[in-house]
Amino acid sequence: MQKENYIMAEVVFKKAQMIDADANKACNLVVCLMRQSRYEEARYILEHVLHEKLPGSDETKSKRRAEELLSELNSNLPQSQSMDDLGLDDDFFKGIDELLSAWGSNNNRSSRRLPIFEEISSFRDQLAC
After folding, report:
1. How far apart are CA 45 and CA 108, in angstroms?
2. Strand, helix or coil at 92?
3. Angle formed by the axes of helices 23-35 and 60-76, to 10°?
4. What is the pLDDT of residue 42?
5. Cβ contacts of residue 62 below 8 Å, gap of 6+?
């Protein structure tokens, strides 16, 4: 990981986990995933360490490192915006609802075929085999 080749390091740590899984290797894998902005995968592995599902995760040092990584992970996560923060008003949502209603009434839901196939299906019987 010194040369910032996190993809290769990820492969190495995953292989090492398959051979002899432990909390330290899992934390190293988490670092690789976080540097690649793969936060959900990193969180999943950290939860395994914090819930002591891996050998060595009951050790104080491993637990502390996992907690530090989780803290770093949480600080790096993009903050989701609520609808209120986006400045969208009720008229916008009403317009979307009307659009969806109009589209739904014009769209024939019973048929899943493309419109072109609907048009040529009447000629199907006329085709010679």
Report:
1. 45
2. helix
3. 10
4. 94
5. 23, 24, 27, 49, 56
Provide the pLDDT confidence category of residue 95 given band limits of 50, 70 and 90: confident
Greatest CA separation for the chain: 78
End-to-end Cα distance, the chain: 64
Q: Report the amino acid identity of residue 72.
A: E
Cα–Cα distance, 2 to 28 (Å, whole number): 12
Q: Name the CA radius of gyration of the chain, rounded.
A: 26
Strands (E), 8-113: none
Give me the count of residues in the chain.
129
| Local structure of residue 59 (DSSP, 8 states) | S
- Model pTM above 0.70: no
